[in-house]
Amino acid sequence: MKISSTRQRIIGGLLLLLIGIAISVYFWQMRLQKPLEIDMAHHQHSSGAVSQLGMHDHSPTGVSCEKFVAKEAPGPTRKFDLTAARTVLQLDNGETVDAWTFNGTSPGPEIRVTEGDRVVVTLRNKDIDEGVTLHWHGINAPCSQDGVAGVTQDAVRPGEQFTYTFVASAPGTYWYHSHQMSSIQAKKGLLGSIVVEPREPSAPFSAAKEVNALFQRLDSSMLLNGSSKALSVPGKAGEQIRLRLTNGDNETMNFSVDGAPFQVIAMDGRDLHEPGHLSGVMIPVGAGQRYDLLIRLPESKKVIVKSQSATGLSIMLGSGNEPELTEGGAMFSFVDYGTPQPDDPISKRKPDRSYVLRLGQSLFVKTINGHSFHEIPPINVKEGERVHITLINEGGGDHPFHIHGHTLRVISQNGTPLTGSPVYLDTLLMKEGESYEVELVADNPGLWMAHCHNLGHASMGMTMMLNYEGITTPYRVGTKSGNLPDL
Ligand SMILES: [Cu+2]
Questions:
Q1: pLDDT tens, 118-129?
Q2: Rounded to the nearest whole angstrom, what is the distance from the C-alpha of residue 253 to the centroid of ligand 1?
Q3: Could you tell me the CA-to-CA distances from 212 to 4, 18, 185, 198, 354 in Å, in that order?
Q4: What is the domain-level CATH number for residue 385?
Q5: Which of 105, 120, 223, 224 has the largest CB neighbor count within 10 A?
């Protein structure tokens, strides 16, 4: 009797101690996400191995990110206004959501411009106390226009405004979202689509019709273009449809295409070279990624593009009978898809720098090279350098790695070099255990975030910087300024 009660007391005490340790570790790790004040240009800790070449330019005489603004545009100026506001939305699944919207809707209005246009977007914040920004996901805007709170600007407070200007230099499918408390604000509704149409549509991909499909999670509802219902697009047999798929959610979406063969003509807005016809394969669209599919409508049969996870959110193209639907099936791989570009611009010169980024997790945080958020040593580069990066997903789920201001050229997957079309991505989906080699050209001087686009993972620390030598910022991340880009 006495022994067992003593044992119970010991076990009880040990349990309390363990709970105490867990709570302390939790708060110690959470403090990382909400630092007081961090300069993202010079945040590397002296203990961290920063760069093979060593970066010691901490001089206050550097050039501010604010100095990098839009160059002259060959095309006309296109102006847009987006006002962020608290809005009660009545969804078509019967749910009522306390949403945050652009111009009263979520997604916000589609921004559609032509390659070469000068795009001017005025963001106003009506009443979102936390502040908002606009980040142009996939568009390599100049540093001062990248829309990252605490790095390229202060969050725009209620009653304030900020005007973004950039040149839509590369045609493709992109999207925009707030980069202040991004994991919270994207889910609250502060996102939308931006499409840059080519100035001269390239003949093989010229489609009679275009369908833009933006998927998002608003609160707890999965939506397609703001609706919880299937999207139905009429069309005649023989007609070509360009379907732009954007995953604005945090989880990977796998799409099946039934009823006709199809081509993947672009990934993350960048065209693929001589893409082949596919059937029966699933298209895995990582969080933040875009896939453009080209589908020719068959005789007297519908084509159904269906998300395997967001049931009900299918896209029905054409008319006639429903095709047989596949469940599961092989995944699309870009490793040997399409053909090499004859005049491939890739440089044969040795990379100037090499980095290895291991994405994983420890206890309550997501990590890169064992660290979280501002404790992750940044990638440091000089303008003009060629940078080789090895990315490894060591666990913690899918990690769609997104880089701001730059495009990643994928070199290999799990050690296998790409043999098909060149693949350029701004968001690289990495499944657990996968490794990739990528390269980028440092051609956009500034301070750039690089993070997992499962924004929940980013908010748990999987977010770092790519910094150009000698670039500074007057803005600060932290609770003092209220700029918390990835909370
Ligand atoms: Cu992740």
A1: 999 999 999 999
A2: 14
A3: 67, 51, 22, 15, 37
A4: 2.60.40.420
A5: 223
